[in-house]
Design a protein that fits this description.
This is ABC transporter ATP-binding protein. InterPro entries: AAA+_ATPase (IPR003593), ABC_transporter-like_ATP-bd (IPR003439), ABC_transporter-like_CS (IPR017871), P-loop_NTPase (IPR027417). It comes from Lactiplantibacillus garii. One of its GO terms (molecular function) is ATP hydrolysis activity. There is one protein chain. The strands form two sheets. Strands 6-7-8-3-9-10 form a six-stranded mixed sheet, sandwiched between helices. A four-stranded antiparallel sheet has the order 2-1-4-5, with helices on one face. It contains nine helices and ten strands. It is of the alpha/beta class. It has a domain of 140 residues: Rossmann fold, CATH 3.40.50. The chain is 39% helix and 26% strand. The radius of gyration is 18 Å and the shape is globular. The protein binds adenosine-5'-triphosphate. The site of adenosine-5'-triphosphate has 11 residues, from helix 1.
Length: 247
């Protein structure tokens, strides 16, 4: 049995002359939440897309659930929530969930039950029969998360899942992510929110395409002799700049 859902080794990626990922190693064990934090443009989305097999890498390799990526069958087993919502605005929330559920081959007999489960998880049950064009930004984000959950995937890859979601619902969503984790699922999550980073089992700090530090939040705080992940991040960034300046 595979105990690591994701294993990325020495992943590098450039767009033209611009190196966006520089030999990144990353391991997501089963039943864990792995957070990627880093400033805008650090390479988080590119790393996620490389792991999903949506972006061809220039160097290194990625295995998901023991299979070398890209692999269509494995891609279909990953619940992916992209940074921008790809929803059918003229359809209702329920119709969107049904469409994506069918696309993901959710068995007909299970589809209605999975729609209820996913909608309930993101607190959208009462608005499910309204057209998406009338949804707020936060509601669209929640619907995208429900879509990522619709086929009950073992691995969820969530690119900034809580942007535009109010603090109370954010707490609920994190409580649910923890429940999913206890059930054996793994999650790879990008975030800018430091209190969310503290909730991850493992973190990678990524800046200018380089993995500056990896470990549990407690390990990172201890390593950098600081109290918060925000301070870890600031300190690691300053050290990176100082090292670059010394070159
Ligand atoms: N298809 C592309 N072609 C050229 N450059 C790209 C492409 N995709 C991303 N980049 C560049 O790669 C760098 C990393 O982008 P990426 O989206 O991975 O960052 P990010 O850490 O996810 O940022 P954010 O937090 O703003 O989403 C950026 O400089 C971006 O402009």
């Amino acid at each position: 049995m595979t105990t690591n859902y994701v294993e990325a080794q020495r992943v590098s990626k450039s767009f033209g002359q611009h190196q966006v990922l520089d030999q990144i190693d990353l391991t997501v064990p089963a039943g864990t939440i792995y957070g990627l934090i880093g400033p805008s443009g650090a390479g988080k989305t590119t790393l996620i897309k490389s792991i999903l097999g949506m972006e061809a890498v220039d160097g290194g390799e990625v295995h998901v659930m023991g299979t070398l990526m890209p692999n269509r069958a494995v891609m279909a087993q990953i619940g992916y929530m992209a940074q921008s919502d790809a929803l059918y605005e003229t359809l209702t929330g329920r119709e969107n969930l049904k469409f994506f559920g069918q696309l993901m081959n959710v068995p007909k007999t299970k589809l209605a039950q999975m729609i209820d489960y996913a909608a309930n998880l993101v607190n959208l049950t009462t608005q499910l029969d309204q057209r998406v064009s009338g949804y707020s930004g936060g509601m669209k984000r929640r619907l995208s998360l429900a879509i990522a959950l619709i086929q009950d995937p073992p691995l969820l890859v969530l690119d900034e899942p809580t942007v535009g979601i109010d603090p109370e619902l954010r707490q609920q969503i994190w409580a649910e992510l923890n429940k999913l984790k206890t059930g054996g699922k793994s999650m790879l999550v990008t975030t800018h929110v430091m209190d969310e980073a503290e909730r991850c089992d493992y973190l990678m700090l990524i800046r200018h395409g380089i993995a500056l530090a990896q470990g549990t939040p407690a390990e990172l705080k201890q390593r950098y002799h600081v109290e918060t992940i925000e301070q870890v991040f600031l300190k690691a960034g300053r050290l990176q700049d100082a090292n670059n300046g010394n070159r």
